[in-house]
Specification:
Distance between the termini: 53 Å
Helix content: under 10%
Length: 739
């Protein structure tokens, strides 16, 4: 939580209490702010916050501001207009209609489009003033509201435009034509500055001479009382103070200029070059000019280009007052009210007031939305323990305070391996990664401790990137052939160098089945050339959480290599005399006691059962003779329970490549064999348990540097689907042993 969090949440509470009625997203914002080369950050102490927490409606614009409150507009199914008091934050939701605020006053004007205007003093709450302009006839359009006076354009019969001030005097409708404007002007640019003054920019030909001027109209006398020559270019903004007048000139072939002239004197007009061709909104606050850049289509979200700057009227380097702005209006007593944000006080309505003795303007937060200006992490749904065996567990969500582009990196602490799942935007500010449980190199992610790192860049580019970190523990249920602690079935390969390598598998959504790691397999042992036959026990036979390996050396000694995650524990001698067997397999629980057993066929074709004990030092009991006649098979494979019976089963391949299924009875013996397929002569079947994690054991084979896969069906009469190619896996070894 940052340094302003306590203030922020206090303000949020105030918003909740004061705004019983809310509406939807923002209306189109008023002109935004301009970024200026050479701007510097406001000095400490220039931005303050009023003691009373006053709410500003979320996603609304400020329309006007008076001495006691402000008018805001918020969009939804229809515009929601509110008048909010500074003193206590009480907001009045106005009846549906179209509204205008009278600048620098508490007057709000409403019209239903019929030509009838209702003017209400929101400070006093007295009876509204109704001005019905319909008796004036056609051609009147509203240009603004000056106190209780309507400023209206009137189309003339000759195609020109007159300016009229319409109101009521002694209860009667009055219509005063503004004098001092040349005849024949067309659609003049009009800005109401205050209850007593209106700014008008016109271009007209007078006595054969083209004239471009900014004028000041006095409402009380209905007359132009001041004029200033402008360049013959479009003027897109005007501002007035007691001592100065300013306007924005936008040449077609150069950058925008802000012209400043002293009122009532003969001093030369000073033009400030903005250095940009973007439109600029201006205001005069004391001896300073504020300016904010905006686009033709005004922005509805924050943007650093729309920051609020101020510079001395006489010239000089600008200073930044707000990090961004969305809308603004002239306030009473030479102030400006701006909807925007600072990193210190966050989002809301700020008052820009003249500084003492010409000092820089003072910035004060007067109403808050309760939203941060910096991008913040609101919440996340990353569990302390992430079990990827659970449905939907890979969906990890981060909720940010506003829209951003986000990226995610997951790092396995023990190995440094990383995953970078995509983090798309679900709704604005909400990002969900649907992690498939794979590292970036396609390897199934290992169990263990992880760190996550979220990096988010705000869409609006206001403020620094957000970087947050956290931790979680990944767990997956161990499988019968998992030797790197990630819950996937691995292919073990012994190469000519005697190295034991783990080729990891993962499910490929495009192949609809498993594929195996081609590059950089995990090496879990060396010196394995001392063994003449290697046996894999699907699941664990010695009581640990990991799969184990049983191997026979060339002298007939049997050794246990107990699994220890991504490695093997030191080997343990578990018996001698095993050279009498030429076929050994393990993994199926054929005795029905819940522990995997070992099956061996001697050179006379007799099969023997070594029941699993669960002991590390003596993992198998004494041999029990099952029966003879097994010499006809050149490969036997303990598959686990593939037939749905009471115990594990056995698959045997004869010299013709036919596979035979022996269903376990649960007492250490098997039912009569069943033919389940042919064509396996060149495919030595290897049982690796449930490779594709569908709950049914599968078969795998390796031939000519290609891994083949036969999917388990769950039907004991046809327990495996046809063999298909899965992964091209060159071993760079002449005669690798794969199991």
């Amino acid at each position: 939580m940052n340094r302003t969090s306590n203030t922020r949440y206090r303000l949020v509470a105030a918003v909740t209490v004061a705004l019983a009625v809310t509406a939807g997203a923002a209306v189109a914002a008023a002109p935004g702010a301009m970024a200026t080369t050479g701007a510097v950050t406001a000095a400490a102490g220039q931005s303050t916050q009023e003691d009373v927490a006053v709410p500003f409606p979320v996603d609304a614009t400020v329309v006007s501001a008076g001495p006691t409150g402000f008018l805001s507009a918020q969009s939804g199914e229809q515009l929601t207009w509110r008048w909010t008091r500074y003193a206590d934050g009480v907001a009045t939701v106005l009846p549906p209609g179209s509204y205008r605020g009278a600048k620098q006053t508490d007057i709000v004007a409403r019209t239903d489009g019929s030509g009838v205007y209702t003017l209400s003093d929101m400070a006093t709450g007295g009876d509204p003033l109704e001005v019905d302009t319909r008796p004036l006839g056609e051609g009147y359009t509203l240009a603004g509201v000056a106190g209780t006076t309507l400023v209206m354009r009137k189309a003339t019969a000759t195609g020109g435009t007159e300016l009229h001030l319409v109101g009521k005097e002694q209860g009667a409708l009055v219509d005063h034509t503004v004098t001092g404007l040349p005849a024949g002007i067309v659609n003049p640019f009009v800005i109401v500055d205050s209850p007593g003054t209106v700014l008008v920019r016109y271009t007209a030909t007078v006595d054969g001479v083209k004239r471009s001027r900014v004028t000041v109209v006095d409402v009380a006398t209905h007359a132009v009382v001041e004029e200033h020559e402008t360049s013959d270019v479009p003027v897109i903004g005007m501002a007035l103070s007691a001592t100065h007048i300013a306007w924005v000139e936008k040449p077609a072939d150069s950058t925008v200029k802000v012209a400043v002239a002293r009122r009532g004197g003969t001093a030369e007009t000073v033009r400030h070059d903005t250095g940009s061709t973007a439109n600029v909104a201006i205001q005069i606050v004391g001896d300073w000019l504020t300016h904010r850049r905006y686009s033709v289509n005004a922005p509805t979200t924050a943007n650093p280009l729309y920051a609020l700057y101020a510079r001395p009227l006489s010239g000089g380097e600008p200073v930044k007052l707000l990090e961004h702005t969305l809308s603004s209006t002239a306030g009473p007593d030479g102030t400006q009210l701006v909807r925007g944000g600072t990193f210190e006080h966050d989002e809301g309505l700020y008052r820009i007031a003249p500084g003492t003795a010409g000092a820089r303007p003072v910035v004060t937060l007067v109403a808050s939305t309760g939203q941060p200006t910096t991008l913040e992490l609101v919440s996340h749904t990353v569990p302390t323990t992430l079990d990827l065996d659970l449905p939907g567990a890979g969906a990890l969500t981060w909720t940010l305070s506003r829209g951003a582009n986000a990226s995610l990196e997951l790092v396995h602490k023990a190995t440094g391996k990383t995953a970078k799942p995509g983090l798309p935007t679900i709704t604005e500010g909400v990002h969900t990664a649907r992690w498939d449980g794979l590292f970036s190199d396609g390897i199934t992610a290992y169990n263990g401790e992880y760190t996550w790192k979220l990096t988010a860049t705000p869409w609006d580019r206001v403020g620094p990137d957000l970087v947050r970190t956290g931790t979680f523990k990944l767990v997956r249920k161990p499988t019968s052939h998992d030797f790197d602690d990630n819950g996937s079935s691995d292919l073990l390969l012994r190469n000519d160098l005697g190295e034991l390598l783990v080729h990891d598998s993962h499910m490929d959504p495009y192949q609809q089945g498993p594929v195996w790691q081609k590059k950089a397999p995990v090496r879990i042992g060396t010196g394995w050339n001392t063994y003449d036959q290697v046996l894999v026990a699907p699941g664990n036979i010695a009581g640990s959480a990991y799969a184990d390996i049983v191997a026979r050396d060339k002298t007939g000694v049997l050794w246990l290599h107990q699994g220890a995650g991504r490695t093997l524990a030191p080997r343990v001698r578990v018996g001698g005399g095993w050279q009498i067997y030429d076929r050994i397999t393990g993994g199926s629980d054929v005795s029905g006691d819940g522990r995997p057993d070992l099956l061996a066929t001697d050179k006379a074709g007799v099969q023997w059962l070594y029941k699993g004990t669960g002991s590390t030092t003596a993992p198998f009991s004494k041999a029990v003779r099952i029966g003879g006649g097994w010499g006809i098979y050149n490969k036997i494979t303990a598959t686990g329970n593939i037939g749905g019976g009471p115990a594990g089963d056995l698959v045997a391949r004869d010299k013709d490549g036919v596979l035979w299924l022996y269903l376990g009875k649960g007492d250490g013996t098997f039912a009569p064999r069943t033919r389940i397929g042919g064509g396996w002569g060149s495919f030595p079947p290897t049982a690796m348990g449930d490779v594709d994690r569908d709950g049914r054991p599968d078969l795998v084979a390796y031939r000519n540097e290609t891994v083949y896969f036969a999917k388990g069906t769950g039907n004991w009469k046809a327990p495996f689907a046809p063999v298909r190619e899965s992964t091209y896996l060159p071993t760079n070894s002449y005669a690798p042993t794969v199991f």
